[in-house]
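Example: ATP-binding protein.
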Amino acid sequence: MGSIGGLCRTRRSLMNIIEHHEFLTTKTQLLMEMGHFRPGHMIFLMGPSGVGKTTLRHAAMQATFGNPLLWGRGKTPAIECFVVLPQIGFFSSAFLADEMIDQLNAPSLNWLFENSDIPLNVEGEITANVDEAAKIWPLLKRSGMSERDLWKTFKRTVKERGCKYVSLDQVTGLLVNRKNKKPSDHIEHLMSLGEACGIMFIMTGVARASELWSIHSELRRRVIPVWMSPYSEHNKGDLVHYLQLLKTLSGKYPLSKNDLLYTMATDIYAMTGGTIGEIVKLMQRAAVLAAMNGDTKLKKEHIQRASYNEKDLRNLWGDIKEFEIVKATADSSLRSEEVAARWSLNKKATAKVA
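Written out as C-alpha cells, the predicted fold is:
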C-alpha cells in the first residue's frame, strides 16, 4: 500500500500503470485497426479529456513498433506531433508540415519511452543519438521554405525514413482557421497526402473532432473512429469494471477504511464522470489535502473536499454528454419503414427473395 508522501513517479504516472477494462478493450480495437493498414485512411481515437487517450495511443504504438533494434539505420516507423496554433491563435498547415519534417529528422520518441519496458541503458543510448540529431538537424535545415516546398520535403523524407504512421494529437486545433479555410480542406489534404506517401494518420481528440469528418460523406468513409469511453451509468456492464478500478486504486493509497472507495463509488462517479484521469487526479488532490491536514490516511472528507467547483464539474459532465452524442449510433428504423413502404417490401417478401 502506498504512502501519502510518496506519490511522486518518475517514468510512470499512476494512471499509466492501471490497465483497466476500458483501456484494454480500446487498445485491442486500436491495434486491430492499425494492423489493417490503409494508406489515406485516418484512425480517430476519440474520448473525453482525461480518459487516457494519449497513454493508450502510446501503448498501441509501442506494441506495434516498440523494438527500435528492428527499425534499421536511419528509419523511424512512426512519428508524433501536436496540432498547435502558432499564427495568432489559428492553425497553420505550413507549421504542421515543418513540425512533421522535424520529427522525421530528429524525433522526440516520447511515444516509445512512456511507461515502456525498454531497458534504461538502451533508452539512454537511443536518447543520446536523438539528442545529437536534434543538434545537427537545425544546421542542415533550410529556412524560409514555402508551404509547397515544405510538403514536397515531407513527402520525400517520410519515404526515406520508412515511416508508415503519423500520429497527430489535439486535432481539434484543425478546426480553428481563418475565414478562407475550412477544416475539411485540411483533412482532405492529409488524406491525399497519406495515399500518395503510403502512410496512415492516427488522429486523437475530443468529441468536437468529429466536425472534421462530418461535413462530407466521402470523408466519413475513410475515417475509422475508435471510441475510448468513460465508465457510464447507462451501461450496466460498466459497473463491475468501474468497481474493479476503484479496488485497484484502493491498493495504492492508505485509506481510513479498506472499503472506503467502494462505499463512495457513486460519489466518486458523480465527481469524475467515470473517467480514469479524473479519478486519479481526485485521489491525488485528496492525498494532498490529507497531508496538509497532518493525516496519515485518506478519509471520506478529504475526497469530498477534493471535488471540482460547480462550474468545473458542469463543464466535465458537458464534455462527457457531448462525447456520448457523437458516439451514439443513429436510429434508422423510421427511414427503413419509409423505404419498405415505397418499395412495397415486408419481411415475408424479402424472405422469399433471399
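The chain is about 50% helix and 5% strand.
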